[in-house]
Write the structure tokens for this entry.
Amino acid sequence: CRNLHFSVRLMSWRRRLLQLSGGCAAVGGASFVYIRHGLSSSTITTRKEMLKNTAPNRPLPSRLEQIKALEAADHDGAIFDIAVIGGGATGTGVALDAITRGLNVCLIEADDFSSGSSSRSTKLIHGGVRYLESAVKNFDWGKLSLVTEALREREHLMHIAPHLSSSLPIMLPLYSLWDVPQYWLGLKLYDLIARSSTIDRSHFISANSALKAFPLLNDSGLKGAMVYYDGQHNDSRMNLSIALSAAKYGAVVVNHMKAVTLTKDQKSGRVTGLVAQDVLDGNRKEINIRAKTVVNATGAFCDQILRMENPEHENVIKPSRGTHIAMPSVFSPHHMGILSKTKDNRVLFMLPWEGYTIAGTTDVECELDNHPKPGPGEVKFILDELKRYLHPSLKVESQDVCSAWTGIRPLPKPPSGVSTKDVTRSHVVTTNDKGGLVTITGGKWTTYRQMAEDAVEAALKDAKLDHKFNQCQTRNLLLTGSHDFTEFIPIQLLQDYRKLLPKTAKHLAATYGDHAFEVAELAKASNYRLLTQHNRRWPFLEAEVEYAIREYACTPIDFLARRSRLAFLDYEASVEAVPAVVRIMGDRLGWTAAEKVRQTKSTMEFLNIFKPPSGKELHASSFDNQTLLKTETTHNP
């Protein structure tokens, strides 16, 4: 038995030494790849260089003006160079890429911008530590290239909207001495590939230092921790900023406008455009959008568009559900996140975000759903895994969950027997056999810009326009709200608007960038009234609802989920805000009393998908109709 035990230990150490030597080899190999194909000095753009970008002078058109532009093009028989279906990160990225090259482009989104997976991410801008680990262990150069691309795009995304993104230190607690050199090598490789000018490098800290930085950490057997740095952002606001930027540069972008069918040339079978319908106004006629190429950027729903082109199309997407939870901020320091592994070898994040702690994620095969919700046991799974890394005396219960949400990953369909967690996050661009339809699938939030560039290149090639337009312009392009942004904006807001609360000033700057002053000016008319009067811990202003309409918000859901993020953070607080949001939007958009009641009902139905396990499901009947129908005399711009 002793000999057998010794043999097992020897084999284990041999395997670990092989992994370590593989890691060293990967460091050397990655250095070679990095030197030859990695970030050259010309691709690292300084803040000063990007500030050469000036904000477009074109005012933001209203949604109605954008719809009329589509109708005018239909009436005149005009042909867009590119028509995009899908208003997520990739779709809006395609629109911005195309319009800044000089193409004539339009985009439609059946729901709201970022209503799908783009608003339901882990909120990280990252290269993928897990993919790097897999690349080293399996000598997988494809995954190493994916990490290299993602880290290059991370640098870009951190620059273009500094008010929406920031650097976040993330701790990897180590409970084995062997893990120390292994993770030190891996994260130094991560730093080497990144060569970041904005994000700090990884470092090892002792067990005592780890506990000081993250006091709730399980100290039993703790040997120390590695701390590395990645980016974090407000994903739906980032997505919206890309859409608004495209619109300001001249793209026609319309949310709540669905694609009914694709149009084709009767002889060749080539896709020549699409027919669109306004989801919010059933009385509006369908619009025929003619385009040289249609780009299908509908994420997990891309098979539905492909089936419009070919009814016999076989699915190329295998949907995977990822669930996250939001808990009070006390569960994580405001300046430090944590990364660990679950029992089934998945990645678990616990991160500070927007004044809360978010944790996740799961990876479960699922069916497509426009409004997915956590499956049975997923929230419990996350909580149980958190308990393994938090101090045993700390009880983490379902009552601590403030909100829970699920997003669907648009993963390429894997071979039989391959789990979704092992499917690559690389993106794929394809063109249909008869031409006219380019589809972009897979990928991850961080690489949206590269995905968009590749899709536009494919569209130009398909339309035989690849020699007539400029190269991609988006790498150095600041998004709306960034051009005059400085860290001093919160102070300037407090000086210019004396009744503004400090927490609200910080919130406005972090949400709207240099447009924060426009929101503050609107708020003067309502005496800076907070959206949740009974719960004054929230910084949101009623004026933000009014401003959201300018940003193409059409429903209370658009505001509560994508403009303010309240639904993702606190289910009960978002429910409390419903009457005020319905009242303000109803007054501005001219809703009848019946429409206000209908909007309240649909909003409550939507918010209930964020309800934590211990929460009480609420309905529109919870509100007094007089509250919903009440109007106030406020400034109407």
